[in-house]
Amino acid sequence: MGVSRSKGHPLPLWLPLLIGATLRLVQIQAPILGIHSWRQADTAAMARNFAEQGMRFWLPQIDWGGAGSGLVEAEFPLYPYGVALLYRLFGVHEWLARGLSVLCSVLTIFLVIRIGRRLLGERAGWWGGFSMPCCRFQCSTDARCNRRPC
Question: pTM here?
């Protein structure tokens, strides 16, 4: 079952990726504020605690634990762990966490284009990937210090 490829000029893959990265890099150095800031703060705290207190991913720790240890039940902390690796290399900066989110978002745009091209054809895959960077919801959630949109 082959998918017919459209004839004509190839559509530039870099354009949706560049637009997506540019829109998501706006205010990348802003402090953790806004909708779901509590979730972003918890994620950033987990990453900082990983970086400062040993890289034990099975012991995620937050800052609002009171008199207790601050250990918390959480999803598998792959994202905070990745941010913690960046914190250990470059220091604790919120833009590093957002940068990792932007990188994952741009990778997602790339994968949508590739999968769309394979399943639906060259043009449909490109337009599907091109629509992602322009979607307001995607732009607002993909540059957060967060594991996933809430």
Answer: 0.80
State which amino acid sits at residue 20. G
What pLDDT is attached to residue 140? Answer: 57
Quickly state the pLDDT bin for 124 (edges 50, 70, 90): very high
- pLDDT the model gives residue 4: 46
Percentage, residues of the chain above pLDDT 90: 37
Distance separating alpha carbons of residues 120 and 73, to the nearest angstrom: 41
Relative orientation angle of helices 122-134 and 94-120, to the nearest 10 degrees: 150
Please say whether the beta carbons of 120 and 5 come within 8 A: no
